[in-house]
Amino acid sequence: MINLEEIKKKLEVVKKARKEREPIVKLNSKALDLFETLCSFDKGKPSYAVAKSLSEKLAIECMTELDLYFYNMKFADEKQKKVWNELSDYLRKIYTSSK
Question: What is the DSSP letter of 75?
């Protein structure tokens, strides 16, 4: 079951960690926790059920924070990069088509 409150809390934790310039290890852990929650992997592939359930504001905030994170920290591997690109493209399509 998708817990939007959990996603909101994890997003706030990432925002706070970035604003307070926490050590990279802590920021890394918190950002990846949010990323994995948004992806909610199903048999090795990202599930988009979470993305569909987010409000436009929450989706944009999550994308913004994770874009900043991945821009500064880079991707761990090509799989992580591919999953992020798929998820962010999917979120963009959902919210640009709804307008």
Answer: -
Domain ranges, residue 50: 4-97
Q: What is the pLDDT of residues 51-60, one digit of tens each?
A: 677 888 888 8
Pairwise CA distance, residues 80 & 77, whole Å: 6
Listed as own residue / partner, the contacts of 50-59 with beta carbons closer than 8 Å and 24 or more positions apart are: 50/2, 50/7, 51/87, 51/90, 51/91, 51/94, 52/94, 53/2, 53/4, 54/4, 54/7, 54/91, 56/95, 56/98, 58/4, 58/7, 58/8, 58/11, 59/91, 59/94, 59/95
How many structural domains compose the chain?
Answer: 1
Give CA separation, 70 vs 11, 65, 78, in Å.
15, 9, 12
pLDDT in tens, 71-88: 888 888 898 888 888 888
